[in-house]
Amino acid sequence: WQTDKASDYQDIYYHSAEHIAKITINRPEVRNAFRPQTVRELIDAFHRAHLDPDIGVIILTGAGELAFCSGGDQRIRGEAGYQDDIGVEHLNVLELQRQIRTLPKPVVAMVAGYAIGGGHVLHLICDLTIAADNARFGQTGPKVGSFDGGFGAGLMARTVGLKKAKEIWFLCRQYDAAEALAMGLVNTVVPLAELETETVAWCRQMNRLSPTALRVLKSSFNADTDGLAGIQELAGNATALFYTTAEGQEGRNAFLEKRAPDFQQFPRRP
Ligand code: 1HA
C-alpha cells in the first residue's frame, strides 16, 4: 500500500494500491470509535477516493484486529450530541452514511473484531462486507441511549428481514461471524490471517469489470429505497451517458455556434 502524503489525517489512514483505496479508522485504543474529527476526515477521504479517476473500489476498515468500529465515542458525548474540540456538538455520521451510499464506486467493509453500534451501521451501509472469523456484530443503541432510525433500521430490515432487524435492535445482542453470514449481513467469512488478501481479491475482481456498469448498478440498488433522491442518482448516470453521445453534444454545439440544433439527424429508436 502507498500512504497518501498529501493528507494530514489524525484519526484515519488513507492508502492506495492497484486502483484500490483503503481507508482505515485508526483509534484502536477505543475500538475505533469515531468522534467529529474522525467523521470529518472520513468524509474527506471518501471524497478523495470518489474524485480520483485512478480508484475503482474503496475498502473501509479499522486499525488492528480487535475492531472495525465501535460507533460514536461515548467519552465526548455531551448533552445534545458528540462534542468537537471546541465543544460544538455535531457528528455528521449520517452525512458520511449518505456519502458512502451514493458515491459511484463499490465500497467494501473489511471487518475484523467488533462492528458495533454506529460502527455496525457503517459496515451495513457499505456495498459488501468481508468478515474475519473473529468478527462480532451488533447494535447497542437502546442500551446506551441512542438509536439510528434511518438507514440503521430501514436498511437493516432490507438486509436481514424485518424480524431479525427488530431482534438486533430490540435485544442488543452480539452475533458472531457465522451467525452474520447466515442472516445475510456479510458476504463471506475468512480466517483473520486471510482477511486482507481475500478482500483485495474481491476488489481486483470488481476492478476488472465495467466501471460504468458497476456505477449504474450501485445507483439502481439505491433507487427505490431512496425515493426521488435515488431516482436523481440513477438519472444522473443517464445524463452523464447522454452527454457522451453525438445527440447530446449537438445541443451544446448548436448553442455555442449560435444556430438552431439539428436533432433530425438522430434516429427515433423503438
Ligand atoms: O447510535 C448512534 C447514532 C445514531 C444516530 C445518529 C448518529 C449516531 C452516531 C453514533 C451512534 C452510536 O454509535 S451509539 C453506540 C455507541 N457504541 C457503543 O455502545 C459500543 C460501546 N463499546 C462496547 O460495547 C465494547 O467496548 C466493545 C463491544 C466494542 C468492545 O468490547 P471489549 O473488547 O470488551 O473492549 P472494552 O474493554 O469494552 O473497550 C476497550 C476500550 O475502548 C475501553 O476503554 P478503557 O477502559 O481501556 O479506557 C472502552 O471504554 C473503549 N471503548 C470501546 N468502545 C467505545 C469506547 N470508548 C468510547 N466510545 C466507544 N464507543
TrEMBL record:
The lineage of its organism: Bacteria, Pseudomonadati, Pseudomonadota, Gammaproteobacteria, Chromatiales. It holds the Pfam family ECH_1. GO terms for molecular function: 1,4-dihydroxy-2-naphthoyl-CoA synthase activity. Gene3D superfamilies: 2-enoyl-CoA Hydratase, Chain A, domain 1 (3.90.226.10), Lyase 2-enoyl-coa Hydratase, Chain A, domain 2 (1.10.12.10). It catalyses: 2-succinylbenzoyl-CoA + H(+) = 1,4-dihydroxy-2-naphthoyl-CoA + H2O. It comes from Chromatium okenii. Converts o-succinylbenzoyl-CoA (OSB-CoA) to 1,4-dihydroxy-2-naphthoyl-CoA (DHNA-CoA). InterPro entries: ClpP/crotonase-like_dom_sf, DHNA-CoA_synthase_MenB, Enoyl-CoA_hyd/isom_CS, Enoyl-CoA_hydra/iso, Enoyl-CoA_hydra_C. Its cofactor is hydrogencarbonate. It is an enzyme of class 4 (lyase). Hydrogencarbonate binds at residues 139-141. Belongs to the enoyl-CoA hydratase/isomerase family. MenB subfamily. The record marks 82, 243 as: Important for catalysis. This is 1,4-dihydroxy-2-naphthoyl-CoA synthase. Keywords: Lyase, Menaquinone biosynthesis. GO terms for biological process: menaquinone biosynthetic process. Substrate binds at residues 31, 70-74, 82, 114-118, 140, 146, 243, 258. GO terms for cellular component: cytosol. Its EC number is 4.1.3.36. Pathway: Quinol/quinone metabolism; menaquinone biosynthesis; Quinol/quinone metabolism; 1,4-dihydroxy-2-naphthoate biosynthesis; 1,4-dihydroxy-2-naphthoate from chorismate: step 6/7.
